[in-house]
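Chapter summary example.
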Amino acid sequence: MKTMYLKNYSGKKVAIQLQVQQYAKNGQIAILLYTPDGEYYSDLSVFVEEFKYQNFMCVDVNNLPNAVEFIEEYKLWTLIGQASSGFVTYPIYAMDIDELRKRDEKWVDELVNSKFWDEEKVNLRTRLS
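The structure predicted for these 129 residues follows.
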């Protein structure tokens, strides 16, 4: 996995790596952050019940206030909208599965071969562009 840097609450850059997983309830992509030595750091994504698309992700700006800056700095995904849940409005990003695979090949391959994966719910990015 490729090491990247995310600003923490105090503005200090922390080395992190992305790990791709799935939410058990519906198979949406879950992006977790770990330190290079494998210690859990935080979730980058957040589960929003009403959100149904598999290659889109709601970003947890509630617990990671610098998440959007991090995504934009590394040009990871494309901002396409917002989703509200409770008192928080989360930015929604379209993810390029091939780009995601470059950062975590093992988990992305497991994801696309899982029982939840549905290609019909993946190619929406091209229709929105």
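To summarize the output: The CA atoms of residues 60 and 109 lie 24 Å apart.
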